[in-house]
Design goal:
about 450 residues; 6-stranded mixed beta sheet; alpha/beta; 14 helices; 8-stranded mixed beta sheet; globular; about 30% helix
Length: about 450
């Protein structure tokens, strides 16, 4: 059973269609091409990218050394008597601290009669190479025992009752595996079940699991998220602000690019997410990060303090990886949000942009990014920022491996060329087979957007 297009509420699907069929875009590419891009997007979002991207800790070891160690670790993952080839590990041709692993799929996998149902988040993780951990299981056969062969399905709408024996609702097959626990252990009322519940032996998408693999040396991160750190361009000795920092992937990357020399201030308003930042920083052996539980919209103050809030013009560079609708995340087989929820982020993003401009030193760099595909949260925010803050100018991005900004927000061609939009729908099923594999990797990523400003 192939994975269908992403499931959206009708009003959300129509809203997205209006974005990708706006008048500027229709005038430039025509109705047929615009429709094709939109439908490719819906198809593409439910599938994982063609490569797994790993950021390596070049502040701790050379890339080639990490690559060899990773190859050795992943080889140990192979099941006895497996005929599958060893995972290929490729250096990215442009990004120096990225390794790429091609993903094999969708594969022809025969479904079994015994079904395990997992939550949508767990199902998406399985499509990217993860095992099924016990907390992600919501239903399984009444007499399931450890060692049973099972098919794993993802509950798209979150309607499966935890502890059910079967589920007839909307679900998608993600592969086969071997149960690692009895049903009674998974749904024990005495204590929460932990660890792997199903070992995926025949997944729909074949990709290595990185659970516990070379902690500190490799960090799973989507390619555009790694690009953001390089575009920001942190330098040793600078003071840098990451305004919405959890879980700390970009924060730790900034510190590593600075060779851990300087100060990286990480703000996150949700307290239980701060610990994840601390964990990542500790594992990556970084000392220059200071994390605070604080609302970045209130991070500006005239008082001089060591912690937040901060006086205006306190930072050399600011990263605003803004809270967003997340409609570029992959794989994402279903979005249950209402149109009101999808459209609710623009005011918050503008509050954060206003604080970012105030906190940035003159001559400093502000990078704004999202993992969504809408105009309202991307190009329209750039247009608003340029109109609202005359001190801001768009700057070239290095590296620039994504496409230009999308038509529809009234930006000039020159301005759009300075933006970087990773749009998988533009290249789905259109990648030239002669293109070297590492170069194809940045032609099939999550949906993502990056703008780089300088404060004059």
């Amino acid at each position: 059973m192939p994975i269908p297009k992403i499931s959206l509420r009708p009003e959300v699907a129509e809203h997205l269609r209006s974005v990708f069929l706006n008048q500027e875009l229709l005038a430039a590419v025509g109705q047929q091409e615009a429709e094709s891009r939109f439908h490719d997007l819906l198809k593409c979002l439910s599938h994982p990218p063609s490569h797994t991207c790993v950021r390596v800790s070049t502040h701790l070891a050379p890339v080639d050394e990490i690559r060899l160690r990773l190859k050795d670790q992943l080889k140990k993952q192979q099941l006895p008597n497996s005929s599958a080839p060893s995972a290929e590990i490729l250096p990215h041709p442009i990004i120096p601290d990225v390794l790429l692993l091609p993903v094999d799929g969708p594969r022809a996998v025969q479904q079994l009669s015994s079904e395990v149902v997992v939550g949508a988040q767990c199902g998406s993780a399985v499509l990217r190479g993860a095992q099924v951990f016990s907390p992600g299981i919501v239903a399984c056969p009444k007499y399931m025992k450890r060692g049973d062969l099972v098919s794993v399905f993802s509950d798209l709408e979150g309607k499966c009752t935890r502890g059910a024996f079967t589920f007839q609702g909307q679900k998608v097959f993600v592969g086969n595996g071997v149960a690692q626990k009895d049903r009674a252990d998974i749904f024990s009322s005495e204590q929460p079940s932990r660890g792997v519940g199903v070992l995926m032996t025949d997944p729909l998408y074949q990709s290595p699991s990185f659970d516990g693999v070379l902690p500190g040396l490799v960090f799973l991160q989507n390619l555009p998220s790694v690009v953001v750190g390089h575009v920001l361009g942190p330098q040793p000795g600078e003071r840098i602000l990451d305004m919405c920092a959890a879980p700390g992937g970009k924060t730790s990357h900034i510190a590593a690019l600075m060779r851990d020399q300087g100060e990286v201030v990480a703000l996150e308003r949700i307290r239980n997410k701060i610990e994840k930042i601390h964990q990542n920083v500790k594992v990556l052996q970084l000392q220059s990060v200071k994390a605070y539980c604080f609302d970045s919209t209130r991070a500006v103050s005239d008082d001089t303090t060591d912690g937040p809030p901060f006086p205006p013009e306190s930072f050399d560079r600011v990263l605003l990886d803004a809270p967003c609708s997340g409609l570029g995340q992959r794989p994402n087989m279903a979005v249950t949000w209402s149109l009101k929820e999808v459209c609710s982020y623009q005011p918050l993003q503008r509050k954060l942009l206003r604080a970012a401009v105030q906190l940035l030193k003159r001559g400093g760099v502000l990078v704004y990014s999202t993992c969504t595909v809408t105009l309202a949260e991307n190009e329209e925010q750039v247009r608003w920022a340029l109109d609202t803050f005359p001190c801001l100018t768009l700057q070239p991005q290095d590296p620039h491996i994504g496409g230009e900004g999308m038509l529809g927000a009234g930006l000039t061609q020159e301005q759009r060329c300075l933006l970087q939009r990773f749009s998988p729908e533009l290249r789905w099923d259109r990648i030239d087979a002669s293109t070297p594999l590492p170069r194809r990797a940045h032609q099939d990523t999550i949906g993502f957007f990056i703008a780089k400003f300088q404060k004059n």
